[in-house]
UniProtKB/TrEMBL annotation:
Pfam families: KH_KhpA-B (PF13083). The keyword Mitochondrion does not apply. Belongs to the KhpA RNA-binding protein family. Forms a complex with KhpB. It is found in: Cytoplasm. This is RNA-binding protein KhpA. It comes from Paenibacillus albiflavus. One of its GO terms (biological process) is cell wall organization. Keywords: Cell shape, Cell wall biogenesis/degradation, Chaperone, Cytoplasm, RNA-binding. InterPro entries: KH_dom-like_a/b, KH_sf_prok-type, KhpA. The keyword Cell wall biogenesis/degradation applies. GO terms for molecular function: RNA binding. PROSITE patterns: KH_TYPE_1 (PS50084).
Length: 76
């Protein structure tokens, strides 16, 4: 799942070398913290949050098999 987020984020940003994903796991959930270069945050969020919502939808759909709640947070 982490790799999926990295591939999507690197395709969107100008500084792909600064894309990082930190995984925080608990009993019932997994949180992926996506961090990008400060100038690329707007590109990952998108107009009105559309791109961020799309990334979350793809990750949630791909994580159905894990039986855990999956969230993606964008941190700067």
């Amino acid at each position: 799942m982490k790799d999926v987020i990295i591939v999507i984020a690197k395709a969107l940003v100008d500084h792909p070398e600064d894309v990082r994903v930190n995984v925080v796991e608990s009993d019932k959930s997994v949180t992926y913290e996506l961090s990008v270069h400060p100038s690329d945050v707007g590109k990952v969020i998108g107009k009105g949050g559309r791109i961020a919502k799309s990334i979350r939808t793809v990750v949630t759909s791909a994580a159905v098999k894990q039986n855990k709640r999956v969230t993606v947070e964008i941190v700067s």
